[in-house]
Structure to design on (691 residues):
């Protein structure tokens, strides 16, 4: 068996109740067509994969049933916990995570395709850690009716949703960990790019929150906890093509993309009772001139109301849906709720204890955050008896006030109802780390229904925390009535204040957007939540840029000067004068102004993201192709321009610093802008000839 080395993940899994618990194979099975037939085949694994196992009787087993494995971060935590090395928990479905998924699938006896489909999610939800390695790989083939109800033709597909198709277009995605992710805004339904930078969701200081980003770009969690599949070099544009649901049959959903026939399209949906946009691969995909047809078996979707959001084909253009976009999969109830207006209650604790305003905590401590929105509860009768600090049994008006597993709110203290005897209620005091208080007779009481994806309103939120030097960090939070825990790894000494919390409600039936609510305080601490770290060995100093070699007047940085490039060339920008300060430089953006050489074109700009290679700050540009039109690719360049270097954005583990070609330095923190002495950077340029 594969067993975890620490108990942290189990504590999280037991403490948190994830909001998509019903989005498992149980729900999928409920919506399957009863006329389907299933055939199971088995392929023996090589005996060389046998693992020596410890005594099974020593394994007590873990409970992963409440975890939403549609979220990549949860998948990565799970895999790392059980010895399948997924690397950094960053929500990015990179090569290491895919390899770990395949390792788990082989161990569990599933077909190792690297796709976290319904069978894989079901296996993870039911995983205890006590399992032995499978000796067979099970492949399930499901036969379903075709989308044409008037014929008896059937289409056979594997139970995973992965479709392998040949490529007929040039991908502009990078193989880097940093860049831009395609999406559509949950709040206004406009196309949007998410900037994927440094991302450690376990740490308070793990995900920088940038003040300055390009137009149409937002920070990592500012459009919910989106699914990451590919990362692009620059912000996305809106395509002139159109896409919509063409038809819905008893077994299939057909989506058309008019204006572009391409087998590389991926399709994105908002799942029921969720604000999360997820990618689902079609059962079949056909392409003709100017047209893409994608057919999705209804068995790919869980029960409820789905919303088709957009399609994207690795070209840098997003095709936003229009027309018919919503469809229902055997909904048992309507998908409506009250709209959130505010955060009613926020619990901000350390090691499960309240943090006094400005209180000191250690670098080894934990921070826990939970919240409740203002429309998730109902008001019931006031208290009829005094509630002391030590009381575990409280008296309410009658036995109709609450039921088992409902949550009571009394003066911002949460109490979980464990049982009741007439009008006496046995409760868990200080639920979700709320502060235990005594309560007088006649105090207002509210209650929340037992937790489910339907009973809550907000299924995701993010917080922003800043420190006194102006560093800002974005923290992803689980849905309301759940605790999210963070460590303080890498956090410098200083005072930290809660600046913002933004909540996302699940999408209502009939709407193309979701309700969001933001509470923000940029001058002091939001809800008076502030703490101080004094014992950290970490500190932060911004990177610097020197212009000259030490002790000489020779330039230490170098780049092309009026160089004419051609297809196949590569040129270097040598920034040996960069000093990383106290934080490792992870990647940079080289920024250029494009001046037309023939006077017939428009002035433009172009930026290229490049990962840093250790402490060597030589960055190469490749010219795989020169074309006569604008290019979004980092290695394809438009002809007829002089590219003048304007600035370099330097991204380290904490923030961003921009060194401009006019000697200016701009910081993404609250310190004043400065100057550098590499005055010659404006001489760096190259030309792409018209011929």
């Amino acid at each position: 068996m594969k067993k975890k080395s620490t108990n942290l993940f189990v504590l999280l899994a037991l403490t948190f109740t994830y909001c998509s618990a019903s989005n498992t194979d149980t729900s999928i099975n409920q919506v399957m067509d009863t006329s389907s037939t299933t055939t199971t085949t088995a392929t023996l694994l090589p005996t060389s994969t046998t693992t020596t196992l410890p005594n099974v009787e020593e394994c007590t087993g873990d409970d992963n049933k409440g975890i939403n494995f549609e979220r990549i971060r949860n998948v990565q935590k799970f895999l790392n916990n059980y010895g399948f090395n997924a690397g950094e928990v960053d929500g990015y479905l990179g090569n290491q995570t895919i390899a770990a998924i395949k390792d788990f699938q082989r161990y569990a006896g599933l077909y190792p395709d690297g796709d976290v489909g319904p069978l894989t999610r079901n296996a993870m939800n039911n995983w205890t850690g006590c399992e032995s390695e499978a000796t067979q790989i099970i492949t399930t083939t499901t036969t379903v009716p075709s989308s044409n109800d008037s014929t008896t033709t059937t289409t056979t597909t594997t139970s995973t949703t992965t479709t392998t198709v040949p490529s007929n277009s040039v991908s502009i995605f990078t193989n880097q960990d940093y860049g831009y992710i395609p999406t559509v805004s949950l709040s206004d339904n406009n196309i949007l790019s998410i900037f994927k930078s440094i991302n450690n969701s376990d740490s308070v200081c793990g995900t920088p929150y940038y003040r300055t980003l390009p137009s149409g770009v937002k920070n990592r969690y500012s459009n919910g906890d989106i699914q990451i599949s590919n990362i692009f070099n620059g912000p996305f544009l809106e395509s002139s093509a159109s896409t919509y649901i063409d038809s819905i049959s008893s077994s299939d959903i057909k989506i058309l993309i008019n204006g572009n026939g391409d087998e590389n399209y991926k399709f994105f949906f908002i799942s029921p009772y969720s604000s999360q946009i997820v990618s689902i691969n079609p059962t079949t995909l056909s392409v003709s001139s100017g047209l893409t047809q994608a057919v999705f078996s209804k068995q790919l979707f869980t029960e409820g109301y789905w919303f088709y959001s957009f399609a994207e084909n690795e070209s840098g253009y997003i095709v936003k849906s229009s027309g018919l976009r919503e469809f229902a999969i055997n909904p048992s109830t309507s998908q409506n709720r009250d709209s959130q207006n505010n955060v009613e209650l926020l619990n901000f604790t350390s090691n499960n204890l309240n943090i006094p305003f400005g209180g000191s905590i250690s670098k080894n401590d934990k921070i826990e955050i939970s919240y409740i929105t203002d429309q998730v509860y109902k008001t019931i009768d006031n208290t009829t008896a005094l509630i002391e600090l030590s009381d575990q049994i409280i008296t309410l008006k009658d036995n109709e006030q609450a039921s088992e597993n409902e949550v009571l709110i009394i003066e911002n203290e949460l109490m979980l109802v464990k049982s009741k005897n007439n009008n006496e209620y046995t409760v868990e005091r200080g639920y979700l780390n709320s502060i235990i208080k005594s309560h007088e007779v006649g105090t207002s009481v509210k209650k929340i229904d037992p937790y489910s994806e339907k009973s809550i309103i907000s299924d995701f939120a993010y917080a922003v925390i800043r420190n006194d030097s102006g560093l800002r960090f974005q923290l992803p939070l689980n849905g309301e009535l759940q605790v999210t825990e963070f460590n303080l790894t890498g956090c410098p000494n200083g005072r930290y204040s809660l600046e913002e919390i933004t909540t996302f409600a699940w999408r209502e039936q009939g709407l193309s957007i979701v309700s969001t609510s933001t509470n923000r305080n940029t001058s002091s601490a939001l809800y008076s939540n502030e703490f101080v770290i004094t014992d950290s060995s970490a500190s932060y100093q911004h990177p610097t840029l020197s212009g000259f070699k030490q002790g000489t007047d020779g330039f230490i940085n170098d780049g092309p000067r009026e160089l004419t490039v051609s297809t196949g060339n590569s040129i270097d920008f040598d920034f040996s004068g960069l000093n990383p300060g106290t934080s490792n430089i992870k990647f940079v953006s080289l920024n250029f102004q494009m001046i037309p050489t023939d006077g017939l074109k428009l002035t433009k700009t172009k930026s290229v993201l490049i990962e840093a290679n250790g402490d060597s700050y030589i960055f190469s540009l490749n010219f795989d192709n020169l074309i006569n039109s604008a290019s979004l690719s980092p290695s394809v360049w438009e002809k007829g321009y002089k590219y003048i270097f304007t600035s370099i954005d330097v991204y380290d583990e904490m923030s961003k610093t921009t060194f401009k070609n006019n000697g200016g330095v701009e910081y993404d923190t609250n310190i004043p802008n400065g100057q550098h002495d590499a005055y010659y950077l404006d001489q760096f340029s190259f030309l792409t000839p018209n011929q």
